[in-house]
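Q: Here's a chain of 333 amino acids. Please give me its 3D structure as tokens.
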Amino acid sequence: MQEKENKLKVGAYWASSCGGCDVALLGLHERILDLLEGADIAFWPAATDFKYEDLKSYKRNELDITFFNGGIRTSENEEIAKLLREKTDLLVAYGSCAHQGGIPGLANMSDKSTVFDTVYRDNPSTYNPEGTVPLERSEFNGGELELPAFNERVKNLEGVVKVDYTVPGCPPPPELTQNFLDLILNDDLPPRGSVVAGEKTVCDECNREWNKKSIDEFHRPQEIEIDLEKCLLDQGIICMGPVTRSGCDASCPEMNLPCKGCFGPPSKVDDQGAEMLNSLASILQIGEEGKALESEENVLANLPDPIGTFYSFSLANSIFGGKVEDGGNNERK
């Protein structure tokens, strides 16, 4: 590809996440050179020495496209998300945390004070006899220190600003990112609002044999000897494939691991976990007539960590958003 005279201005930002999505961008290896031939890095604090003041100096929509990874956990995350929305023409939710809230969203099952107690006071590996926790403002040596506010709930990027495109995954696989970059460089992007992945489910990509068997017991993958050819659900292992968007080539089931749902739900599914429970209801072997409810409860009682199982990546964007007794997430869009 010939170097363009008017290069695109590209940004990337890391909010509340593990950093794997930034690594995934670098993991493109020589393909990132194709991007650099047609674009300049205008803001990427994790990889280059950019400051927030640099971002603030840009005009509205001066950045052509920004890859935003991570959920919105702090006031800083929210502030920069809104600033990037102002400065960027195309804002991309890159990865599961920006898309659905991701693993950090599981903290919505606890309130802010419980999170702080767990991390700073009640953790057996933490020595903190005075019970000190971070404060938004504190004085030290005659000066004042300020930290971002720790929000009560984790939100996905769409819960704060409008998102133009979503590239899902934890992290997005290289092929998916490469395909998206090709769409950018060839000026062939789909309509705004698109999730740039498959339209079907992981099951449609999976090569395992599904016999639609009824099951009467659930197992963790390490508890049984898994048949490499048979559907994991047929073997009583919870696999989120039926309610997860395609585009990963069923990479986890191909490696003998159940799908955890990191691509989020297909377009016609609103709540990934609720839809999965609905799917399981059709394959549960509920036993004798008249004792269906009791039998179903017995089967479901074997499920370890239901929230972590059905909402590993999507709790922050689910119907209830967190602890039901707290009223859920009334701000969900």
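Q: Can you summarize the key feature?
A: The mean pLDDT is 88.
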